[in-house]
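Page 47, continued from p. 46.
Same chain as before, 76 aa.
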Amino acid sequence: RAVTEENVIAQLANLRTHPSVAARLARGTIAVHGWVYDFGIGHVSAWDQNSGRFIPIEQYTPPPPAARSRTFSAAH
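Result:
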């Protein structure tokens, strides 16, 4: 699970560097989200950039549109 989660985080960072994605992130017209699905238990976790960890999807709240460009432009 840890390897899968690290891969999702790395892929989010990679995706943010793509020119078309980066431009839309800067304008606040797109957001990227990272989810992990555990087939064994049927559980979805979402990457919460604010806390720096995966949380149950039921607890995940995407950032408001005005904050998206600031939230997603920083590389972690």
